Amino acid sequence: MTRNARRGQLGNRLLAVWSVIVFAFLFLPIIVIIAYSFNSGRLLVAWEGFSLAPFAAIFEKPVIRDAVMVSIRTGLIAAVLASLLGTLAGIAMARRPGRWVWWFLGLLLLVSVTPEIVDAVALLPWLVFLGQDLGISLFSDGTARLVVGHSLFSVAIVSYIVRARLVGQDARLEEASADLYATPLRTFMKITLPLAMPAVLAGFLLSFTLSLDNTVVSAFVQVSGTTPWPVYVLSALRSGLRPEIAAVSTIMLVLTLISLALVALVLKRAGDSATQIARTMAGG
Question: Which position has the higher pLDDT, 146 or 245?
Fold first, then answer.
């Protein structure tokens, strides 16, 4: 074996060891939290034995149950709203190209890159103005305010995904439908929407997972009685992390992984490559 070959082999081994260290650094805390979600102790700092009591506490303690339900309810509504608006925007950009598309993509990019704290600071006085000063009761409702905050970023994500999906599809199918005297609505329901459906479903699931994780905007726009789970966890830090918090975090992690797996499955069946699936999951 030559010197260069030995150096290359040594480099590969060092790279493998470094990769293991990096992955352990990133994922070991998550593994620890999952393990400690079965802790029978009062706090997470010390392991006192195996127990399923932290998971039972989700149903026994109204505060925890309500926070989880607020997160799930908000996530579902925000995902539906983002899917609806994002699908219409994505179809419009793909089927009605023009100079306006680049301006619109610029606005979506601005929404995507704006720090959450900026969105939160801007949304709070705006929602207070609409709800209290103008008397629009919808914007005084806690769930509605959370949905507005959570769906901002998700609309942009769904728009990107749907546009990318339809740009690669042949528009002559819709033209043929029109030539056969199908109405625009029938063409949309029978041709356009089925073509875009994998991207719509992927966008819905991504929007749901992003909503479950939204903390900064939620902390600003929430009202009393509609505290979502991430905000509850932050407030619970003052009294110490308890095993039931780890239990709910474990369940949400499982829900997120299932959602991402469904997104990958749907996109794979729709013919996307591994690179395209990874780009979609990254929001690109």
Answer: 146
